[in-house]
Amino acid sequence: MLDNKYEKAFALWMMAGYIFFTVQMPFGIILTSGTSMQPTLEGCEVAVLDTNPSVEEGDVIAFENSENGKQVMHRAVMHSGDGWVTQGDNVDHYDLGTANESEVVGELVWHSPSLC
User: Is 84 left (phi over 0), alpha (psi -120 to 50) or beta?
Assistant: First the structure.
């Protein structure tokens, strides 16, 4: 039986790795942090991304923030001419700029419970 958070995290990573390497589907795995997507996502969750997404309004996407070079996972609120306007579920304003199609890393397809 898995008694602590490290054993649970290891088991989830092993399961995700098995799926990724045996099925060879276009998926990515990241660890979430922060509070901007609460209550949808808590910090310290394993998130599985479809790295070949067909993004629609309302999808949670991961993208490269061109301002600071970090990956951000927020909701695609609306499409503009050059990309997606995004916003965290726990934030009352849109993100600055847009997430261009080339900056989208993937779409959230599954996430674990918080591991921390």
Answer: beta
What is the widest separation between alpha-carbon atoms in the chain?
51
**Full domain range(s) for residue 85:** 5-111
Alpha-carbon separation of residue 48 from 25, 83, 92, 93 (angstroms): 11, 22, 26, 26
How many domains, the chain? 1
H or E stretch covering 15? helix 5-23
The pTM assigned to this predicted structure is: 0.77
SS3 18: helix
CATH for 64:
2.10.109.10
Instruction: For residue range 40-79, list pLDDT tens digits in order.
Output: 999 889 999 999 889 999 999 999 987 888 899 999 999 9
Determine, yes or no, domain membership for 116.
no
First to last CA, the chain: 18
